[in-house]
Amino acid sequence: MSNRIEIVENIMGANDRLALDNRTRLNASRTFGINFMASPGAGKTSLIEQTVPALKDKFAIGAVDGDIATTIDADRAAAAGAAAVQINTGGECHLDAVMLRQALNQLDLNSLDLLIVENVGNLICPASFALGTHKNILIASIPEGDDKPYKYPNIYRGLDVLVINKIDLLPYIPFQMEYFTKGVEMLNPGLKTFPLSCQSGEGIPEWTTWLEEQVNAFKENTPSP
Amino acid sequence: MHELAVTENILEIVKTHAERANAKKVTDIFLVIGQLSSIVDDSVQFYWDLMTEETIAEGAKLHFRRLPILIQCKDCKNSYTPQGASLACPLCMSEKITIVQGEEFYLEAIDIDK
């Protein structure tokens, strides 16, 4: 006998539930978590290298680096002064909540104020997998071109903050900032945006000042357990 | 490329509900996927066929119901499905929009044999 069973269940539900667990753990240890997403080469690790030295006297900072196979990124984050954990995804194109949970197990979360999660370089898959971090941050970069919001709308939809890196290259590349921001504005109106250059340092203080304020506000609003 | 993880999730949901209903076999799976969700049907089907071997869902057919993108213009209230890359309103050219439909990604129902 054939029967229809009505279900209506979100396919990403299991990941979303684990992401919520991760969030609960981060809140319990009063660690502010941010998720860096970007295409390969946009400057995720470079931004970590700029951010950690600027804030390490104020906060204890951890970094989780998702990568297919190497420890290059975690080594760079550690050299910048972060407690770094590498997650090798073994070919997976994104981090998911389970992978982050395993990384959290390897860190002394209670001693960390800020955790920077560096996702796998990819503009498609990371958008579908919540991690439980407090802010989703995309690092776009000028050489990628100004059409990315139009081609990868999903990742722009779920963002809390947008960083536009490599603005020092604007004179050399036909990147129409107006066209780019128009695409972003349609998908995510009023998105907080930081144009900057990890190479020249332009715009970095605005970014680190904002992040410092965010961590402080989180600490104030998150009581000790 | 994340179809492998997605397919694993689908199988987990299917197994849970099939066991709960004391199913002998799962014959059909009904998925609803918005056009903005970057999922390749053929790729899910490929993993599905491999992954379901010797499970309660072996041989079950996947049905994909694709929901078109639906946008409402915040200025002139026009509802439309965008054509081409721009999501802007084709009537008043406004870029102030709300995405009403197209981001769905859920399992709607399964058919089982008892």
Which short descriptors sum up this protein?
heterodimer; A: 225 residues; alpha/beta; Rossmann fold; seven-stranded parallel beta sheet; B: 114 residues; alpha+beta; hypothetical protein PF0899 fold; three-stranded mixed beta sheet; three-stranded antiparallel beta sheet; elongated
Structure description:
The complex is a heterodimer of chains A (225) and B (114). Chain A has 225 residues and is an alpha/beta fold. Chain A has a single domain, classed as P-loop containing nucleotide triphosphate hydrolases (Rossmann fold), CATH 3.40.50.300. Chain A contains 8 helices and 8 strands. Chain A has helices spanning 13-28, 44-55, 72-79, 97-105, 148-151, 153-157, 177-187, 204-221, and strands spanning 2-10, 32-37, 61-67, 83-88, 114-118, 135-141, 161-165, 192-195. In chain A, strands 4-3-5-2-6-7-8 form a 7-stranded parallel β-sheet, with helices on both faces. In chain A, helix 1 (13-28) packs parallel to helix 4 and helix 2 (44-55) runs parallel beside helix 3. The longest helix of chain A is centred in the C-terminal third of the chain and has 18 residues, at 204-221. Chain A starts with a strand and ends with a helix. Helix content of chain B is 25%, strand content 32%. With 114 residues, chain B is an alpha+beta fold. Chain B has a domain at 3-68 and 102-113: hypothetical protein PF0899 fold (2-Layer Sandwich). The radius of gyration of chain B is 18 Å and the shape is elongated. Chain B has 2 helices and 6 strands; from the N terminus they run H-E-H-E-E-E-E-E. Chain B has helices at 3-20, 41-51, and strands at 25-34, 61-67, 70-73, 79-80, 97-101, 105-113. A 3-stranded mixed β-sheet of chain B has the order 2-1-6, covered by helices on one side. Chain B has a 3-stranded antiparallel β-sheet with strand order 4-3-5, with no helix packed on it. The A-B interface holds A 1-15, 92-94, 96, 122, 124-125, 127-129, 147, 150-151, 153-154, 157, 182, 185-187, 189 and B 1-2, 4-6, 9-10, 12-13, 17-18, 21, 23, 27, 31, 36-38, 85-88, 95-97, 99, 103, 105-114.
